[in-house]
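To whoever is covering the structure queue this week,

Two jobs came back overnight. Logging them here so there's a record in the thread.

Job A:
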Amino acid sequence: MKKEHGMGNEHGLKNEHGFSYETDDDIRIHDLNDLDYEMQQKAWGSQAEKMPDGRRQKTGTAGKEAYRPGRRKTGRKQTPESRITIKNRRRRKRRAVFSVCVCLLMLTAVAGCVVLAMENRHLHEEVQVAMAYVDEVNSITTYTEEEVQKMTADAAAEAAEKSSMEKEKEILDDIRTRMESGDGTAPMLRAIYKNELVVADDGRYYFFPIVDTLKRHSYQADYFQMNEDEILEYWVDGNVVSKKGIDVSRYQGDINWKKVAADGIEYAFIRLGIRGASEGKLAMDAEYEDNIEGALKNDIEVGVYFFTQALTKEEAVEEAEFVLEHLEGYDVTYPVVLDVEEVTTKDPRTEDMTKQERTDVCIAFCERIKAAGYTPMIYGNLKTFLLMVDMEQLEEYEKWFAFYQTPLYFPYEFSIWQYTSTGSVDGIKGDVDMNVSMKDWNHG
């Protein structure tokens, strides 16, 4: 290689042993000479190790140097490696790096295969689960809306039939029990028709739906308890809040009111008088004065009642005036009552009265009593309040309800319950009507 433009190696090129040459070709020629020399040395050394006389010839550097032809000495320090050796080393390094990279790629590929295999297995499991769900769904029977409605109706009918059969059995068992115990037909019907009021009259039974237009009482049926003396009491929060009372007339004869008071009677309704059922004349009760005076003398509070047979509002007012006349001079703190009952005598004068006419009589009497400053009240039983009068027109007046069975069988508002006609009180001979009052009338 020649120098151009003053550039190049000042001392020429060098081979791996540090010798200088003009061109690359000179270096290649010299390296080939070295290779030839080395081969000859190996051949010579193997043949010359032994001399004809059996002695081993010494070989060394000096001999080798004397043999190598064309070797030029420059006097410079020799280098251990040639450029070809350097290139070979670099090539080997590159191959090593390449091999490492290939190995890493292979490891990465293997790792990827493992990950893919795991994912594939997971996907396979999910597919299996999905297929199982599909199989399950396919095994479920589906129905149209019409089929569902029919199935629902059939199920409801079956349940109703079953319930009806159970209810029928319950009713029949209850009827048998009541018949064996001696109860009448009316109590059985009342137990069965719980949402209606059953009234028996002249061999017939009337059913009245319980309506929401009438005021209801707030009493709890189980709060009414009969004590050991067969006295009905009303209990609230462990205390008796009711009042024990009686109602009397001439049928009780002479009464020892001192003994009556000692027996715990707190109030008494005294019959003041009646109107005759046939002729319609007004009459005082024969024991009225003795009874009201005897009760008041023994600190028993009193109210009075009048048995009506009025046909018109005018006769009702006449009855009220008669009562007021005979109340003068007495401290009456309990209500003044109109007794509205059906009489059992032959051909009573009130036999053909309508429901409205009886209602008008009640209103006329109560209004006159209220105007006089007393508390008016209407006495009656189930037949009175459901068949004979219109309760909606009489709601503002107090009610005294007669019913001789327990539990209580009347949903509408009332203040006093006459619960028996066969009570027993010291100081009175024979039976007497017993009452429980949920109001303390003397204290409002």
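Job B:
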Amino acid sequence: MRTQALYLSVGAILLAAGASTWAAKTSDEPISPIEPAVIKNPAMVELGKKLFFDPRLSKSGFISCNSCHNLSMGGTDNLKSSIGDHWQQGPINAPTVLNSSMSLAQFWDGRAKDLKAQAGGPIANPGEMGFTHELAVSVLQSIPQYVTEFHKVFGKDKVDIDQVTEAIAAFEETLVTPDSRFDQWLKGDKKALNEKELAGYTLFKSAGCVACHNGPAVGGNSFQKMGLVEPYNAKSPAEGRSAVTGKDADRFNFKVPSLRNVELTYPYFHDGEAATLEQAVDTMGRLQLGRKFNPEENSQIVAFLKTLTGKQPDIKLPILPPSNNNTPRPQPF
């Protein structure tokens, strides 16, 4: 019995040492796992979810936040540029809302400092939801169930746009995607990735992709010039950070997109010109790294990128409070 106990003790020590070694190894990786969201105010999150899905925050009564950031499609709309009020074509590709709370700023040019600041933009943009903040608030204020819910969350009888954007942001902060196969590998499951995927990750690191695509979101934490080695011939009028800072040096500097769930968020780049992951990897290799990946290398990197798809938010569609006789009517046409 003593001998058996000794073997068990030694085995436990070896397993602990192995786990410790693996933890040290993965802690040195440029990418870290995504952790599940911690919900601190469930009532605010539930209100924000209703507002996220409510098309009455648009002039047409047809467009909601979910229209361009569809939670059934990786938090985006899979279009080169989104469709706005009266079928207007948007000027830029809609980035995913998933894991967006991890970004250093919002929008491709970073003009909104956080999700709360971002949430009010599309509502009042004539090319997007086509409304005004005042009209959106008047719609919500006219709906008794909303007034009651806002009072429950904020303790005020009067709804204002600050409350609206805070609630939407609170919901969006829950839209994280943990437990991807790559996260499982980072946490010690050596069988989570196959040989090709591991080769892709090794190449992703050695080629220099991790200089921009790092951290838990695998991006989103810096602005970089699009076309560092070769110029990029954009099909979009978007200027990048220079539209915010007014500095010519910031022209064509865009927020590095997150690569989490990237297989779901096609097409790629701010102008949506890369229709496939293979095309995106080829373009980024040439323009940003000065490297032409051969077909096998491209395939390996794409295989790795697909391991970044995490557990998608399990959303139960909210039942929205009904309008009443005093609710301003939509103007879709």
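Note for Job B: The chain has a mean pLDDT of 93.

Please reply-all if you pick these up so we don't duplicate work.
Q.
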